[in-house]
Write a structure and sequence with these properties.
Number of helices: 9
Helix content: over 70%
Low-confidence stretches: none
Number of strands: 0
Strand content: under 5%
Structural class: mainly alpha
Mean pLDDT: 89
């Protein structure tokens, strides 16, 4: 079984070689980054597979799941904070991503949309954290850009008596809406342009197409809900960092 899997991995690696060759011939300059990312991803997935193989068969899997969730939240928060580039952003991204993922997973399990089993809960948690991270990053990048580009307008509104909430409201809405566009577009084209990864995996495993479809739609609802919760909370926390208690916009933007 393992030998067959290694053979398939080696065969699939020909596509990675193709990427490197094309990058080299066309001087695109991604061969080094791609090779490093591919090796890192492979090592991480192999380690993850070993850990999950043990956790899935453990009778006390919830005790292992909690540290995994914490690690996901911390790593996602750190990665998102690096993308945002704002000092102390990790104290915004980490709780926002954790809240978004926790809310969506809690609803999915409480309503029994997904079974309370490790082989369902842990992979879906990874999807929730990962997508909440991406949406959080996009939201904060757009928000900081909007504030920087509209500083004079915001300060004028504040001078006329507007609160920080009133001055920021339209930029918060624009930032969150912009961050959600890729996810909403993906949902709009489900089954027409592409078959998503989760559904593809279930179909390859022999799951009934109708069951696979139901789970895939549920996953997309989870992804967007975790993202919008993370985005809304992130903009709330960011606003508290951008303004003084007297509703004055700070200088360091």
């Amino acid at each position: 079984m393992y030998a067959e899997s290694l053979i398939k991995l080696a065969s699939a690696s020909t596509l990675a070689v193709l990427v490197i060759i094309v990058s080299h011939l066309r001087k695109i300059g991604v061969a080094k980054d791609f090779s490093s990312a591919a090796m890192r991803g492979l090592v991480q997935l192999m380690i993850l597979s070993a850990v999950l193989a043990y956790v899935f068969t453990s009778p006390i899997w919830p005790a292992f799941a909690l540290p995994i969730y914490i690690a996901m939240a911390l790593l996602a928060g750190h990665t998102s904070a690096r993308r945002v580039g704002m000092p102390g952003a990790i104290w915004i991204t980490t709780p926002s991503i954790a809240m978004g993922a926790a809310v969506s997973l809690a609803v999915m399990t409480a309503l029994r949309v997904i079974p309370l089993k490790p082989e369902f809960v842990i992979p879906l948690a990874g999807m929730a954290f990962g997508n909440a991270m991406n949406i959080c990053s996009l939201t904060l990048n757009r928000l900081l850009s909007e504030v920087g580009n509209n500083r004079n307008r915001i300060e004028a509104m504040l001078a006329l008596g507007a609160t920080a909430q009133q001055a920021m409201e339209q930029y918060e809405r624009t930032s969150i809406k912009s961050a959600l566009i890729p996810s909403i577009d993906n949902m709009r084209t489900l089954g027409i342009i592409f078959i998503p990864g989760a559904m593809t995996g279930m179909l390859m495993a022999g799951i009934n197409p109708v069951t696979a479809t139901v789970y895939q739609i549920a996953i997309f609802f989870m992804i967007i809900s975790s993202g919008i919760v993370a985005a809304v909370y992130a903009t709330y926390l960011t606003k508290k960092r951008l303004f003084t208690p007297a509703h004055q916009l700070i200088e360091e933007i």
